[in-house]
Amino acid sequence: MKKPGILLIIMMTILLMGCNVDNPSFIEKGYDKIMQISGNPVTNHFKVEFRDGQKCFYYKDLPVSGWVETFNSVGIKSSDINYTRGIPNGEFIFYNESGKKYLKAALIREGNIYVGKIFIGYDDKEKIELNGKFKLTFDWITDPEVRIGDRSPEVFARDVFQQFCIDGEIENDILFHGVIKNGVKSGKWLEKYDDGQQLKYERNYTNGVKDGFWAEYTQDGNVLCKGNYINGVKSGYWEEKDDDLYRSEKGTYLNGKKNGYWEETVGGVYRTGNYIQGLKQGIWQEKFFSPGNSSLYIGEYDNGVQKGIWKYFEDGYLQREDNYGK
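== MORN repeat protein ==
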């Protein structure tokens, strides 16, 4: 399979050691083989090496400083990266295959770590913001048709993004882990609390769309919500709770709407009954609990509206009846 090259256009002037150098346009073929657009090799002027795990760019034996823009084989921008003496430092922006931003970072390199912020889903409604100190790695995933380390658009889409906490003894624990395919989230995404031990989120995507198991946990391991998405909508059995546990509910979804039997608790009120396409339907019971007292309110819903006679009981004795008409 022929790998498309990445058109790498360096849109800046190197200002190092009193020298101003205008940079030509380059195309990258294979792994660290740099060519001019005309096809002539420029290895005497442009080279790539690895230093402390970082890819470093050099032009005419001087480390590159400034903006580097990369474009895919059809001319759509794939990244904007700022370099300082050959190493990424400053603002980073990555684009998907349609040219839409999906990751933006403002990071300052301090030794072997980065300090700053990372935004994922930068142009999307759903945005994840990470703020602090990071050790970032991009692990290449083996593919029979793609050489490990090849930076063609297909391989970049298979990067695994990992965030590491650097505080104390948990320096090597993964706090954030996910896969970017074709510029969008794909597969399982995990996020841990800052202690690096307790899982905070588990989410699954297919081509950037919520798909599969989703869960959120408290720092002590209790489930806040769990259930499945199918093609971006909730489906099947779900459990959902507020952080303060004031509200909790569990039941089934059909095409993103509550459907079937549900149990709901709001404050001290416990409700049970059925939904049809998101609307309460049939007999519902509402139970109220307080010290030394329990009460029950029972009646019928029709298309989400109370109807007929509703009865109110305290400690098993009928206290009143309310008529909601037909």
